[in-house]
Amino acid sequence: MINLTHKQLEVSIFSKLLLKWHENDNNRQMPWKGEKDAYKIWLSEIILQQTRVEQGLEYYNNFLRNFPTIKDLAAADEKKVFKLWEGLGYYSRCRNLIATARIITEAYGGVFPGSYNDILKLKGVGSYTASAIASFAFNQPHAVVDGNVYRVLARVFGIEEAIDSTTGKKNFHQLANELLDQKQPGKYNQAIMDFGATICKPVAPLCDHCIFQKNCVAYSCNRVQQLPVKEKKIKQRSRFFYFFIIQHGSKIAVRERTGKDIWQHLHEFPMIELPQENDTDSAVAEALNLKWISKGDPIKAESTIYRQKLTHQSITAIFFNVRVKQLPASLKNYDWSEGDKLSAYSFPKIINDYLNSRVLATQ
Fold it and tell me: 29, 173, 254, 303: which has the fewest Cβ within 10 Å?
């Protein structure tokens, strides 16, 4: 176990205080709280990866309305699933969601596997999600360690190891499992996550209402805002996209992104990526070179600049509107959709932002 420093807190006392708070003062409401259905727990956990609860709640409810069981999700049309996921980002989660639903339906007869190790083998499921499902659905003693848990443990026990280091992750997981109430793992896991979300918050934590205040190393040493520690900084890559909304009659060219890149399985308009921002002349010249458009085709003035921040990338986009007289042979592999049918396609947020601005401008 990690050597605890300054006002050492016994493991049994920590768990008792936490569960007492959970029983008497935890008022955090979520529709999946107390849920025992492994499918619903798994669905909520996948949706909430990299997503705020407030945003994920609507998606969770929509998915359950459309796919009440894991067999329903496995049998669903992928385009419908991606459309429902639209706006959540991190679309690899959606791909893994579909793949796992099909694996469970085919290999387990639609019944969620009941052991931690089998759950961990599922696509898109890591140790945190496997622990959550195993403890909440099957009452198995596996501690969850998410951002809330890292923060509570780092502050209460004064741990200065980086939570994103190999050693730090190992030691935090070890401590989390030692603190876990073995008889009530699901209740304990819910309690510590809720405590981190509502009391031991990242910014402006409610230290005056904290059950661990007298024993909290970070509070006594005035280091609450310095813990937990991270050692790695995310490097952002800047990319510049130029989208051409090419219209022939009432139809517009659209395609699915299938390459190993961002937004896989979402849709887009013909796009040119250039190494610099606001280089509209080069974008038009390349579209001409690719024979997407011809010199006689009228090009409306380019749009304002749209931006979208991803975890490791910063996307800047400009949109062109072009009416072509002849259907470009170079775009024969694209779908040609009626303009009023575009809402059926799942697009990245940056394209939806542009399309929504067009709709608002015409109202």
Answer: 29
